[in-house]
Automatic annotation (TrEMBL):
<comment type="pathway">
    <text>Glycan metabolism; pectin biosynthesis.</text>
</comment>
<dbReference type="GO" id="GO:0071555">
    <property type="term" value="P:cell wall organization"/>
</dbReference>
<dbReference type="InterPro" id="IPR029044">
    <property type="entry name" value="Nucleotide-diphossugar_trans"/>
</dbReference>
<keyword id="KW-0472">Membrane</keyword>
<dbReference type="GO" id="GO:0045489">
    <property type="term" value="P:pectin biosynthetic process"/>
</dbReference>
<dbReference type="Pfam" id="PF01501">
    <property type="entry name" value="Glyco_transf_8"/>
</dbReference>
<keyword id="KW-0328">Glycosyltransferase</keyword>
<protein>
    <recommendedName>
        <fullName>Hexosyltransferase</fullName>
        <ecNumber>2.4.1.-</ecNumber>
    </recommendedName>
</protein>
<dbReference type="GO" id="GO:0000139">
    <property type="term" value="C:Golgi membrane"/>
</dbReference>
<keyword id="KW-1133">Transmembrane helix</keyword>
<keyword id="KW-0961">Cell wall biogenesis/degradation</keyword>
<keyword id="KW-0808">Transferase</keyword>
<dbReference type="GO" id="GO:0047262">
    <property type="term" value="F:polygalacturonate 4-alpha-galacturonosyltransferase activity"/>
</dbReference>
<keyword id="KW-0812">Transmembrane</keyword>
<keyword id="KW-0333">Golgi apparatus</keyword>
<dbReference type="InterPro" id="IPR002495">
    <property type="entry name" value="Glyco_trans_8"/>
</dbReference>
<comment type="similarity">
    <text>Belongs to the glycosyltransferase 8 family.</text>
</comment>
Length: 564
């Protein structure tokens, strides 16, 4: 009965248009076997004893069941046994042809990565049709039954069986991938529903809950506060050394850039990277945070020994060149701040305007998100640097990245497109003439999170100017909406070098069906998505990948009750 279970599940999971065909066929198949099959097979059991694998056809069981004394009388009733046998084979061929067609249509509906499956199923179906209409077999159907050529019939049966076997194999393999995609689809639907609710909440003035959902949870906040208290109580312990260690600027070492306002997340990134580096004393981590979290970061990274790794903690405000006369985003944020000021005094109007409300989300306001576009100026002495988001975990030694031939490109990143998804068209406004003229809407997008930057190539290509040009044009947000990925895709268009996907596995903050093999094999895993590992809503199966790098022995971490 493998046949039945193998193709019934996906159809019953989701009642879509094709389901009727599949299920109806199943029952038809069985109903007709109780009548036809009993007759034929039993009548013909003497022929079937020589057939290669009767269980391959669903009638195998009834064959066994009725094998006894009925045979002779049935035989006596039937004058030509070959005709019904032919009909039965043909029927099975037809049923499997319809099954393949149904799956092709099912795959087409799921769209995602199934275009190959669509083709395979369509071909399977066509192969059944071709087989039935082969001239040598057509003669079987044209004969009156008495003069049927039995060797041809046997050959026909053999070929049908072979195709049925292939069909079932493909169905069994496809089923797994279909189930996963259904899960993803369901998740997407859920996320979409949540977003809808948030939009509604916003419109109703409940915007603060949105900010709460996006910002730092209580326990991380507690940690930052406690660290800050420590910093204030013992200022001498944490004063900046006047002279920076030469390693911070030594281009022969391995340099990392981490921009974060989350103390715990930043420490997990550094802990995991140090843990897996073969020689920590060759690694330099440049942590940049905001004024508010500077003290906490300084204390956090002073409390522990990193086996010789170097850690620089700075505030974005320390970099004077990042001012609104130079940085378009700051200029735009300043005017956004004016808007914010304006709206804060007129709350009633503010809650009605969803677009402007977005500017009040700290995430979008923060310059910390945008300083990734100033790496060559932040680190003028360096030739190359690895940019890491604060929601990643390092699982391997990463020095191999420095050995990759960048082919003169600037940004080494993993690509994220599949099928029609994650193409440039989804990230920017192709109705805008400037975008349309310059970019290919089908170009493959890549991901931020772990990006290897060749700073010399960046300087040579003058990409900061390129970025400024586009960012200034986007003052009114007509080229793209928010975030750093669209301007990144624009700035590094044609200067991105695709990295092997195992360097950076994404989706641990939203996609429950990433395979554990893929995760275990990854150099870096990325909790992009809403279900961050430091939040209650984190996915249980992925959270340990992150928590194992939390400093539980740190007294402040303990004091802040991480229910991790
Ligand atoms: C269809 O038939 C051709 C020729 O017999 C064969 O090469 C091909 O693999 C078959 N396709 C599928 C999907 O089984
Ligand atoms: C802003 O930055 C530019 C260089 O990027 C610098 O010349 C200028 O002095 C800065 N302005 C202020 C007020 O710091
Ligand atoms: C809200 O906006 C409308 C039109 O833009 C204006 O007439 C009204 O005075 C504003 N309300 C407040 C409280 O500012
Ligand atoms: C943005 O809109 C304002 C007011 O509508 C306009 O003055 C300005 O030129 C626009 N900026 C750009 C870059 O299109
Ligand atoms: C896209 O660009 C066109 C042309 O400038 C503009 O009319 C339209 O409003 C833009 N779309 C969005 C969503 O900003």
């Amino acid at each position: 009965m493998a046949l039945r279970s193998s193709y019934r599940t996906p159809f019953s999971d989701r009642s879509i248009a094709v389901s009727g065909t599949g299920i109806r066929l199943t029952f038809k198949l069985f109903a007709s076997f109780l009548s036809v099959a009993v007759f034929l097979l039993l009548a013909l059991s003497f022929l079937f004893t020589s057939s290669s694998d009767p269980s391959d056809l669903s009638v195998g069981n009834s064959h066994d069941l009725y094998r006894g004394g009925l045979r002779r009388s049935v035989l006596a009733l039937k004058s030509d046994p070959l005709k019904p046998r032919l009909d039965q084979i043909k029927k099975q061929a037809d049923d499997h042809r319809a099954l393949a067609l149904a799956y092709a249509s099912y795959a087409r509906k799921l769209k995602l990565e199934n275009s190959k499956l669509v083709r395979v199923f369509a071909e399977l179906s066509r192969n059944f049709t071709d087989l039935i209409s082969k001239p040598s077999y057509r003669t079987l159907f044209d004969s009156d039954g008495n003069s049927m050529n039995e060797p041809v019939l046997r050959q026909f049966e053999k070929e049908v069986k072979e195709r049925i076997k292939v069909t079932r194999q493909v169905v069994a393999e496809a089923k797994e991938s279909f189930d996963n995609q259904l899960k993803i689809q369901k998740l997407k639907d859920t996320i979409f529903a949540v977003n809808e609710q948030l939009t509604k909440a916003k419109k109703q003035g409940a915007f603060s809950s949105l900010i709460a959902a996006k910002s730092i949870p209580k326990s991380v906040h507690c940690l930052a506060m406690k660290l800050m208290e420590e910093r204030i109580a013992h200022p001498d312990k944490y004063t900046d050394d006047r002279n920076t260690p030469p390693e911070f600027e030594d281009p022969n070492l391995y340099h990392y850039a981490i921009f974060s306002d989350n103390v715990l997340a930043a420490s997990v990134v550094v802990n995991s990277a140090v843990k897996h580096s073969k020689d920590p004393s060759k690694h330099v981590f440049h942590v940049v945070t905001d004024k508010m979290n500077l003290g906490a970061m300084q204390v956090m990274f002073k409390m522990k020994d990193y086996n010789g790794a170097f850690i620089e903690v700075k505030s974005v405000e320390d970099y004077k060149f990042l001012n609104s006369s130079y940085v378009p985003v700051l200029k735009q944020l300043e005017s956004a701040k004016l808007q914010q000021f304006y709206f804060e005094n007129k709350l009633e109007n503010a809650t009605k305007d969803a677009t402007n409300m977005k500017f009040r989300n700290p995430k979008y306001l923060s310059i910390l998100n945008h300083i990734r576009f100033y790496l060559p100026e932040l680190y003028p002495k360096l030739h190359r640097i690895l940019f890491l988001d604060d929601d990643i975990v390092v699982q391997k030694d990463l020095t191999g990245l420095w050995k990759i031939d960048m082919d003169g490109k600037v940004n080494g990143a993993v690509e994220t497109c599949f099928g029609s998804f994650h193409r440039y068209a989804q990230y920017m406004n192709f109705s805008h003439p400037l975008i349309k003229e310059k970019f290919n809407p089908k170009a493959c997008a890549w991901a931020y999170g772990m990006n290897f930057f060749d700073l010399d190539a960046w300087r040579r290509e003058k990409l900061t100017e390129e970025y400024h040009y586009w960012q200034s044009l986007n003052e009114n947000r007509t080229l793209w909406k928010l975030g750093t990925l669209p301007p990144g895709l624009i700035t590094f268009y044609s200067t991105t070098k695709p990295l092997d996907k195992s360097w950076h596995v994404l989706g641990l903050g939203y996609n429950p069906s990433i395979s554990m093999d893929e995760i275990n094999n990854a150099a870096v895993v990325h909790f992009n998505g809403n279900m961050k590992p430091w939040l209650d809503i984190a996915m249980n199966q992925f959270r340990p990948l992150w928590t194992k790098y939390v400093d539980y022995e740190n007294e402040y971490v303990q004091a802040c009750n991480f229910g991790l």
